[in-house]
Amino acid sequence: MTEKIIFVFPGQGAQYVGMGRGMYRDYAVARYTLEQVGDIAHCNIRKISLDGPESELNTPENTSLATFAQSVATARVIEHEFGVPLHAIAYAMAGHSMGQYSALHCVGSLAINDAVRMLAARSAYMTLSNARDAGMAVIVGMDYDKVQYVMRTSGNFGYAEISNHNAVDQFVISGHRPVLQAIVDNAMKNGARMAKMLNVSVPAHCALMQPAADKMRVLVNQIHVDAPKTNWFSNQTGNVMSNPCDVKDALVDQMTHGVRWYDIMQKFPAYNITQAYELGPGTTLSRLIRRAGVGCKAWHTDGGTNLRDVLAAIAKQMSR
Predict the structure, then answer these.
(1) How far is residue 149's CA from residue 145's CA, in Å, rounded to a whole number?
(2) Which residues pair with 173 in a beta bridge?
(3) How many Cβ atoms from other residues are within 10 Å of residue 132's Cβ?
(4) Percent of the chain having pLDDT more than 90?
(5) d(Cα 309, Cα 306) in Å, to the nearest integer?
(6) Parallel, antiparallel, or unpaired: how do β-strands 273-278 and 297-300 relate?
(7) Are 64 and 119 spatial neighbours (Cβ–Cβ below 8 Å)?
(8) What is the pTM of this model?
């Protein structure tokens, strides 16, 4: 193919009740995958995904498993359509936050049983961490240096650090709630387009998750990881990673280190990546890629019509 393709996989926050309904109706392989994830996890992910209620879907473990199930089901539809593994079509893959597990399964590094087991444990470890009076906030409309200035000048009310760099002017901060609120207020005073607390109680991707990371290290050491069968971008470094030992370390480091999604997108021109397909619920990553201005056309698969459009686009590219 003359076009170099990256498949990207969303994380928590993309989910909604009824997601994937058209795909599960139209494709037997998608229905099988949804049931398979539920069987492995010993919970009714099909009912939670399609019927809710929203409060049950939005619990951390269900969110992770339902998002993973839809991403992998979408990948399997593509594989069934073209008769080859997804990594034989992709030049690269990347996942945002828990989407790394979807990407690592599709890139041939993690067996589905292990990926589901790790996602369930990851959610439990994060929820049971000792991070009290903590959470996350988002800032939009400031560059990195301005965000750092706002954080330095917001007073000493606790710990906080950047946990997601999603776009040139979009950041998520994790830490103690008093300092997060001070940062939000200071950001608005200093010209942020938006700054607000997020409705989450877990300060993901920061040092407050060290107890969760310690537990994840024990589990990761029991899991077999193969080398990715095509390029796989790590959230923590923003670079391609291929050594299985490094991949294991990345899954642990993800608990305490920020997601460098902006850095990953900035690598697309160097790798001549020109087509991106978001596999899973929502359109967050495809919109970020379009906004990044990195010369990459972005598609999403949320909804039956969009998935069929993606299948047609991939077929056209594979025929060149």
Answers:
(1) 6
(2) 137, 162
(3) 9
(4) 92
(5) 5
(6) parallel
(7) yes
(8) 0.96
| Cα gap 10→68, rounded to integer Å | 9
Percent of the chain residues topping a pLDDT of 70: 99
Which helix H or strand E contains 287, and what residues bound it?
Answer: helix 284-292
The alpha carbon dihedral of 185, 187, 188, 189 has a sign of positive
Q: What ranges in 153-270 are assigned the alpha helix state H?
A: 177-189, 210-220, 244-253, 261-266
Inter-residue contact 109 to 78 (CB < 8 Å): no
CA–CA distance, 309 with 112 (Å, rounded to integer): 27
Which tens digit of pLDDT belongs to each residue from 212-261? 999 999 999 999 999 999 999 999 999 999 999 999 999 999 999 999 99
Calculated CA dihedral for residues 195, 196, 202, 206, nearest 10 degrees: 10
- Which of 77, 21, 22 is CA-nearest to residue 46? 21
Quote the CA–CA distance of 22 and 276 in Å, as a whole number.
Answer: 22
Nearest to 6 by CA among 320, 307, 238, 271: 271
Q: pLDDT, tens digit, for every residue of 137-196?
A: 999 999 999 999 999 999 888 999 999 999 999 999 999 999 999 999 999 999 999 999
Q: Is 23 helix (H, G, I), strand (E, B) or coil?
A: helix
Paired residues of 139 in beta bridges: 171, 195
Strands (E), the chain: 4-9, 92-95, 134-140, 160-167, 170-176, 194-197, 231-233, 273-278, 297-300
d(CA 309, CA 301): 8
Which tokens is 296 given?
């990459």
**Residue 259, CA distances (Å) to 49, 99, 161, 165, 234 in order:** 26, 11, 12, 6, 9
Q: Residue 241 has which token pair? A: 């990673």
